[in-house]
Every structure is written in structure tokens, then in C-alpha cells.
Design brief:
The protein is mainly alpha-helical and about 220 residues long. It is built from 10 helices and no strands.
Length: about 220
């Protein structure tokens, strides 16, 4: 255990920082793209609804590891090349946006129809209703589902090592290969993931309570 912290502390911190960066970028991208897809799914325009539904049905049924391989090794075949971090982030955004979309859509569907009609009565078009009526209320009611998406993205980031991104899991694996520390390194990584997930859950709960008070 002493060797782990004296010799490999820098590698562990570098891996943890990579995991945090990747999770933050992927979550932010998922939130933006998921919101756009959710707008498509509740749109009165049939082709947009169909496109939104197709996106969700496609990406919720693709394993992240398959998406990582396709983005990393498939796109260069058509002349599109990204660094490994970007490939991992793109893959996680595409997948996370599908789940974010469904979380937001559930919040939109929970908004009373009367409020939508009131928005239209004062002259708001569809995008105006989305911006001023539906989305503000939807986001307040789906804080925990969105936090769950964040936690899912955090845990799925451990697969980024498959394509060579030196996140916490890959760093721990390489350390274990060098020092043969057994389960110790993996337990430490698991502890780090648990702490981040619990902190996110706690912050989500506090935010949800504050938003309830403001409603």
C-alpha cells in the first residue's frame, strides 16, 4: 500500500483528473444534445419527432464499447480523425444524450396542458413555449434523473481505457501490471468512483430541494 502512494500517486491523480475531465465534458455535451433531441421529440413537426425517436432508439441500444471502437477506428476510414480523448467524449455524448433526452421528455410530459395553452394564448410560438414554459418546469422536476445520467456517464468513462485514454481505471490497471498489488489498486479506484457518485447524488438532492422551494 505504501508503494502505491509513494511511487504511483502521480499516476493515480493523473488518471483521476482524466476521469473527471472526461465525465464533465461528456455530461455537458449530453445535456446540450439531449435537450435538442428532447425538443425534437415533443415537436409538433412529425419529421422532427420521428428523427428524435430514431436517435433515442438507436443510441440506447448501442453498447458504449462498440461506439468507442466505431468512432475511434471507423471514422478515420472516412477521413475524420480525432484524438483519443475527443473520441471517447463524442461516444459518451452520443450515448448520454439519448438518456438525457428521455429524462427531459418525462419532465415535459409532466407539465400541465393548461400551462401550454396559456403560453400559446399570450402569443408564444412552439419554441417560445419550450423556452419559457416547458423546459424551465421540466428541468426542475428531473434533477435526480439527470444526476443519474451523470453517474452513468461517470461509471461508463471507465471503458475509455479500451481505446487508450489513460483514465483512472486504465492507470490502475497499468500500475497493477507493474507492481502486482492485486485488488488493492482496483478497490482504491472503486472507492474514488463511489465518492464522486455520492457527492453528485448529494448535490442533486440539495438542488432538487431548493428548486422545489422556488416553485
Amino acid at each position: 500500500m505504501d508503494q502505491l502512494f509513494t511511487t504511483y500517486l502521480g499516476d493515480l491523480l493523473a488518471g483521476l483528473w482524466m476521469t473527471v475531465r472526461l465525465t464533465a465534458v461528456a455530461f455537458a455535451g449530453s445535456l446540450v444534445l439531449g435537450t435538442v433531441v428532447a425538443a425534437f421529440r415533443v415537436s409538433p413537426v412529425a419529421p422532427l419527432r420521428a428523427l428524435g425517436r430514431f436517435y433515442v432508439e438507436l443510441f440506447v441500444n448501442i453498447p458504449l464499447i462498440s461506439l468507442l471502437v466505431v468512432v475511434t477506428f471507423g471514422l478515420p476510414d472516412v477521413g475524420v480523425t480525432f484524438d483519443l480523448f475527443t473520441c471517447a467524449a463524442i461516444s459518451m455524448v452520443l450515448l448520454g444524450a439519448a438518456f438525457t433526452c428521455e429524462a427531459i421528455r418525462s419532465g415535459v410530459n409532466a407539465v400541465p396542458v393548461g400551462q401550454v395553452e396559456a403560453g400559446r394564448a399570450v402569443g408564444l410560438d412552439f419554441f417560445g413555449v419550450l423556452r419559457h414554459v416547458l423546459f424551465p418546469q421540466a428541468f426542475r422536476s428531473v434533477v435526480q434523473p439527470i444526476v443519474n445520467v451523470f453517474i452513468g456517464i461517470l461509471l461508463s468513462s471507465s471503458l475509455a481505457g479500451v481505446i487508450g485514454v489513460k483514465d483512472l481505471t486504465l492507470q490502475v490497471s497499468e500500475i497493477n501490471n507493474k507492481a502486482a498489488l492485486g485488488l488493492t489498486t482496483y478497490l482504491l479506484a472503486a472507492f474514488a468512483y463511489i465518492v464522486i457518485a455520492l457527492l453528485a447524488g448529494g448535490l442533486g438532492s440539495r438542488l432538487e430541494q431548493r428548486l422545489k422551494v422556488l416553485r
